[in-house]
Amino acid sequence: QVQLVESGGGLVQAGGSLRLSCVATGSSLRFYDMGWYRQARGKQRELVATITSGGSRNYADSVKGRSTISSENAKNTVYLQMNSLKPEDTAVYYCNVHFTNSGMEYWGKGTLVTVSS
Known about the structure:
By secondary structure, the protein is mainly β. It has strands at about 5, 10-15, 20-25, 30-40, 45-50, 55-60, 65-70, 75-80, 90-100, 105, 110-115. The strands form two sheets. Strands 2, 4, 5, 6, 9, 10 and 11 form a seven-stranded mixed β-sheet that branches. Strands 1-3-8-7 form a four-stranded antiparallel β-sheet, with no helix packed on it. Strand 5 (about 45-50) and strand 6 (about 55-60) form a beta hairpin. It is globular and about 40 Å long.
């Protein structure tokens, strides 16, 4: 079974930076997308960034220019580098894997990012 483990969250001052990591284990399927989503208290979960196995990237407008998603496909690992953090970035960040052939999705348990003002 696919398992996702996130790390790198924590408390940071506004304007600071964090790098989140996610490692996926338990599957060897070739075609998949990986991404980051976040959910702030009292709000719905939203897309932050995604990257395909072919390297195509997509970002939410709210983080464009401040964040970079990258991956190491051989290690089934995805990263999210976040710079110039704002208090509104405070949320639980979840790693996601989507297998394009089957449509199956898996989620990590999340890592909390808190940006203080």
